[in-house]
Write a structure and sequence with these properties.
Elements lengths: L5 H6 L14 H10 L6 H11 L11 E6 L5 H14 L13 E7 L2 H17 L7 E4 L3 E4 L3 E7 L9 E8 L14 H11 L7 E5 L7 H9 L7 E6 L1 H4 L5 H10 L1 H9 L6 E3 L3 H5 L19 E5 L8 E8 L5 E9 L5 H14 L4 E4 L6 H7 L4 E4 L4 H14 L2 E2 L4 H8 L2 E4 L5 E4 L7 H20 L4 E4 L6 E4 L15 E4 L2 E6 L4 E2 L1
Parallel strand pairs: 1-7, 1-8, 2-5, 2-6, 6-7, 10-13, 12-15, 13-14
Antiparallel strand pairs: 3-4, 4-5, 9-16, 10-11, 11-12, 16-17, 18-19, 18-20, 20-21, 21-22
Helix pairs in contact: 2-3, 4-5, 9-10, 14-16, 15-16
Length: 515
């Protein structure tokens, strides 16, 4: 099929005329046409001017096209129409080698979300008498066309996006991508991976998403290019009803009364001021001991602490962190455990208690999850369970200074690092400051790290006394002296030594004292 303009395709019922039908799609029509650098009518220029800021529409196809739009504004249908046009009505014969296939990548937060756009694409192709003839095959994740182009659905995972020749990338809901392994938004890594894939065909990167917090690549592109006369980047921002006037205003009004901060983001396409990143990822990574996955228990550590985050085994992970405090108040994370669902909670408690015994721990701290069950489960295995005085949000506030001042040593655990870096600070409707994970993410590992850091750090501050203890030369076990204890009460042998931090002292049985 010969290349045709996007305007002609949207007006021709044999092509894309049925994709975005009726006057309610007028703004989308004008905006998509503008992204291709095609001339606009005066009416279209007014529609476009209302959403692209104080700039002129581009005069040539842009390399990056971003639309920040409210919910129910027709984002997926508009993205599908543009994807079909780029896959079927643009000529790539001069850039694709014989046997090479160009790919239109559809990337969503997960495969299921990306398939929403694919479903719209299948419907557009089916209702077009001319375009349906170009379809060679349709599978669960791909639509193979007869013109050397494949429309492929991918999840937001940069590891699956390399090694292709992309003619276009459609990235849906970029602000809400979540990496299942790290619970962080992987948009930076993904966009860095797909931009080189677009170089051969010089195709567009299209980001269409509702807004969220003032961080991440979606916000950064809007901040740097909205309203700017850049020939290669076009950024639009539009509330729901400007793009889809069929949405009732009274529904939006009710949402505003329920939660104005959320509704302004969801329907008015405004960036949320009540949500912000809790800590910079670089600050977290600066506290990581590279390649250290776990620290073995040592006799010279007077006391280890443990914090657990129980789970019933169906949704969240069951996690545990073990740590100790050092002189000067530094906290060292020694061990992290995570069992991801599904699992048997009793079996996990048994497994965790075996680890606790290795670190000479007979007491754990955790939240008030599930009432009496965690206490009972740990108690019958010889471990007492204490409820934390602080909730998760307060624990995160406590650990923040340690992360910023590097007075905590973290293990090289990608999921834990990602969860800490992905924490968000938000203001609740009551005006309180709350810290936690974003929607769809997890913070089970981050929670136990913050909890055990609070325990170990707080205990270190409370003690502050010199530590003395007798070392068993055969087992390496230390019997520590408490305040007021006499060394003679320990019945130390002549070959036993004691540690008075930070020095080693030898026990003199003749004088009944340390020297």
């Amino acid at each position: 099929m010969k290349p045709v303009s996007l305007r002609r395709a949207l007006e021709d019922p044999r092509l894309l005329g049925g994709a975005l039908p009726g006057p309610s799609w007028a703004t989308w029509h004008a905006l998509l046409i503008a992204s291709r650098g095609e001339p606009l009518t005066e009416a279209e220029r007014e529609l476009v001017a209302a959403v692209i800021g104080d700039r002129e529409p581009p005069s040539a196809p842009v390399r990056e096209f971003e639309t920040v739009a409210g919910r129910r504004s027709g984002k997926d249908a508009a993205a599908a129409a543009l994807a079909v046009y780029l896959a079927t009505l643009v000529d790539y014969s001069d850039v694709l080698r014989p046997g090479e296939r160009g790919v239109v990548l559809l990337i969503g937060a997960d495969t299921q979300q990306a398939k929403v756009t694919k479903g719209y694409i299948e419907g557009i192709l089916e209702q077009s008498p001319m375009l349906r003839e170009m379809v060679e095959s349709i599978t669960q994740d791909e639509i193979v066309l007869r013109n050397q182009i494949t429309i492929s659905v991918r999840s937001a995972n940069y590891r699956r996006l390399r090694g292709v020749t992309a003619v276009a990338v459609i990235a849906s809901e970029v602000a809400f991508w979540i990496d299942a392994e790290t619970s962080a938004n992987p948009a930076d890594e993904i966009l860095a991976a797909v931009r080189p894939a677009l170089l051969t065909a010089r195709g567009p990167l299209v980001m269409i998403s509702s807004p969220y917090s003032r961080s991440g690549p979606l916000f950064e592109v809007w901040r740097d290019f909205y309203g700017k006369d850049d020939p290669e980047v076009l950024v639009a921002r539009a509330p729901t009803r400007l793009l889809n006037p069929t949405i009732p205003q009274d529904e939006i009004d009710r949402a505003m009364k329920r939660d104005s901060a959320s509704a302004r983001s969801e329907f008015l396409a405004e960036w949320r001021d009540d949500v912000a990143a809790f800590i910079n990822r670089a600050a977290v990574e600066a506290c990581v001991d590279s390649s250290v996955l776990e620290r073995q228990p040592h006799a010279y550590v007077r006391r280890y602490f443990a914090f657990v985050d129980p789970s019933g085994g169906s949704t969240d992970s069951f996690t545990m962190a073990i740590a100790h405090g050092e002189e000067g108040g530094r906290v060292v994370i020694d061990c992290l455990r995570e069992v991801r669902p599904p699992f048997n909670p009793e079996a996990v408690v048994e497994e965790f208690c075996e680890t606790l015994r290795r670190y000479r721990i007979t007491q754990v701290t955790g939240d008030r999850y599930a009432g009496e069950w965690p206490r009972s489960a740990f108690r019958k295995r010889g471990v007492s369970y204490e409820c934390s005085e602080l909730d998760a949000s307060a624990l995160y506030r406590e650990v923040l200074p340690r992360l910023n001042t590097k007075t905590i040593a973290l293990l090289d655990h990608p999921r834990a690092i990602g969860q800490l870096a992905a924490l968000e600070r938000r203001v609740t409707r009551s005006g309180k400051d709350s810290i936690g994970h974003s929607h769809g993410a997890h913070d089970d590992l981050a929670n136990v790290i913050a909890g055990v850091a609070w325990l170990a750090g707080d205990a270190s501050k409370r003690r502050g006394e010199v530590r003395l203890g007798v070392v068993n030369p055969y087992s390496g076990e230390i019997t520590w002296l408490e305040n007021g204890d006499r060394p003679s009460a320990l019945k130390a042998g002549p070959h036993q030594t004691a540690k008075a931090s930070p020095f080693w002292k030898k026990w003199n049985p003749a004088r009944n004292c340390f020297e």
